[in-house]
Write a structure and sequence with these properties.
Blueprint lengths: L1 H10 L7 H8 L3 H14 L17 H14 L6 H5 L3 H23 L5
Helix pairs in contact: 3-6, 4-6
Length: 116
């Protein structure tokens, strides 16, 4: 249900919130979010939508990237994500670590340089 709300609120053509609302809440444009999502999905299988151990659908890639970006953008603690995204503290921390490692792996050659 959390995934459906996220998609309906931000990513559908007739979404609840506007592009400006998205930019204010995520601190980036929607196309940048989609690009980050696509990049991490291509490199890291953790960001693929799959079933959990109970056979139910796990967290979607949109949810995982949203959690990681929200923690990074606002400095939100991992345990606060349970209320808004329905993810446990350990899942949030794992997602954040996977996201950061993947982004560094994908973009290090272009954006990261040795200090001078």
């Amino acid at each position: 249900m959390s995934h459906a709300n996220l998609i309906n609120n931000y990513f559908n053509p007739n979404s609840v919130y506007t592009e400006e609302d998205f930019r204010r809440r995520f601190r980036m444009r929607c196309h940048v979010f989609e690009r980050l999502l696509r990049d991490v999905q291509q490199i890291n299988p953790y960001f693929q939508h799959k079933l959990d151990r109970a056979g139910r659908p796990g967290f979607s890639p949109h949810q995982k990237v949203s959690v990681a970006l929200r923690m990074m953008t606002y400095g939100s603690p991992a345990d606060s994500m349970d209320e808004t995204h329905g993810t446990s503290e350990s899942t949030c921390l794992d997602t954040f670590q996977q996201f950061c490692d993947t982004i560094v792996q994908v973009h290090k050659d272009k954006y990261l340089r040795e200090p001078n």
